[in-house]
Design a protein that fits this description.
By secondary structure, the protein is α/β, with parallel strands linked by helices. It is built from eight helices and 15 strands.
Length: 441
């Protein structure tokens, strides 16, 4: 309901009218309400942040990965096997009639199950999706996106992005990684070992569900051969490995020290004959938010050479968890065989990916980390969410849907302060840098 001033690559102003401007009333964030819900476009949201043409449905599934290594119960390096449960959230283009509200209430917790000073506190928040709605099949099959959260986190940590991508014609699947969520935080060795394994297992399971005789609501809906994998922090650690960046020998030593000499992680090390990262032709694009590990020796230059899949990195230049110059930017620079981008938020720390802080986290008597699980000290999280939606839409649309015209949103001058970036509202593209390197650079 307002005029928008956007900038193109020639710095010419274009006026886009999204309706008739009647009065200076409240901004309408959603179709049916002026309530802000995570992921809604702010007045200065870049062009591709706006939701797509599809209504969105959401369902919860439970997977079990049988006979996995129970690394948390390893004794003297020997670990038993167990059936590993994974809870999955799926967002998809939905068939909704005019009477079905496109609103869902998600159940979440803050706190940490392994920290007495931060007890688990349940809370809810709204999303723009219809629970258990019928899937839309007429425009399918739709490309697949798999999302992996951080440590600690949950499958609902990036709903602003998962719902947004589903509205643009993607099947989006987010994983609750066992031993790595707020509710079941366990020893870090489980996350080190299982993160890439969970991602690949989920891809294979969704592929099975896509089969005509699977009996799943997803049957025939998914173009699995056009898949993107998105990871945040330890999720970034996982997706890069699945896409071909093998871990270092130093991680093998560190993991062995943590587990009494267990060698289960060996198959994820770059020089191991069993390492299969980067060999899955279904994966066409990677998005890595603040990937962890470079400053801790998890990656080395030899292992990073294995990353050949197009990758979009997103980071804050003050990241004090994954590190920046010797961390995320070093991963970007060392991935010399990939077509890759690095979007950097100036003065941002590690929380460049999550939803905004929930209202419940604003209570003054809570541990500050309940707020800083989500918030950034120098950025509005809602603003970062919109920018992430914009660039992820452009990047995976280019690689999964062959939207060649989306390249114009990525082929930008490096410093956003130099001139308005294409697709951004006039005077709004400040405080960012976008680097691009081709294979061999």
């Amino acid at each position: 309901m307002r005029p928008r001033l956007l900038a193109n690559k020639h710095n010419i102003l274009l006026i886009f009218f999204t309706g008739i401007f009647i009065s200076a009333g409240p901004i309408v964030f959603g179709q049916d309400t002026d309530e802000f819900i995570y992921g809604d476009a702010l007045p200065d949201a870049p062009e591709l942040a706006v939701r797509g043409e599809y209504k969105v449905g959401v369902r919860t599934l439970d997977f079990v990965n049988p006979k996995q290594i129970d690394i948390l119960n390893a004794k003297e390096g020997i670990a038993p096997l167990y059936d590993r449960p994974l809870k999955i959230e799926v967002w998809y283009p939905a068939l909704l009639d005019g009477n079905t509200p496109e609103v869902v209430v998600y159940d979440q917790v803050m706190g940490s199950s392994n920290d007495e000073k931060r007890p688990l506190i349940p809370f809810t928040f709204k999303g723009r999706a219809a629970k258990d709605a019928s899937p839309l099949s007429k425009d399918g099959p739709f490309p697949l996106v798999i999302v992996s959260h951080g440590y600690l986190g949950s499958r609902l940590l990036l709903t602003y992005l998962t719902e947004n991508l589903a509205s643009k014609g993607y099947i989006v699947v987010a994983i609750d990684h066992k031993d790595s969520t707020f509710k079941d935080a366990g020893g870090f060795q489980s996350t080190l070992l299982n993160r890439p394994k969970d991602i690949l297992f989920t891809l294979n399971k969704i592929d099975e569900f896509n089969e005509p005789k699977s009996g799943s609501f997803l049957s025939g809906l998914i173009d699995v051969n056009n898949t993107a994998i998105i990871g945040y922090s330890m999720g970034g650690y996982g997706v890069l490995n699945v896409a071909g960046a093998g871990y270092s020998e130093q991680l093998k030593i560190f993991f062995g020290t943590m587990t009494g000499g267990n060698t289960a992680i060996t198959s994820l090390i770059s020089n191991d004959l069993e390492f299969v990262g980067g060999k899955d032709p279904r994966i066409k694009a990677v998005v890595a938010f603040a990937p962890w590990g470079m400053e801790r020796g998890v990656w080395d230059l030899e292992g990073l050479k294995g990353l050949k899949t197009p990758t979009f990195f997103i980071a804050g230049d003050q990241d004090d968890i994954s590190g920046y110059e010797k961390g995320i930017k070093a991963i970007f620079s060392g991935s010399v065989n990939a077509d890759r981008y690095l979007l950097t938020y100036a003065n941002a720390r590690h929380n460049v990916a999550p939803n905004p802080p929930p209202v419940e986290s604003l209570q003054g008597d809570l541990h500050i980390d309940e707020y800083y699980r989500y918030a950034e000290p120098s950025w509005d999280s809602r603003r970062m969410n919109n920018i992430n939606q914009h660039f992820v839409t452009a990047f995976i649309g280019l690689h999964l849907k062959a939207k060649k015209d989306y390249a114009k949103y990525l082929n930008l001058q490096e410093n956003s302060n130099g001139q308005d970036w294409f697709g951004f509202v006039l005077r709004s593209s400040t405080g960012m840098e976008l680097l691009h390197k081709m294979p061999g650079e």
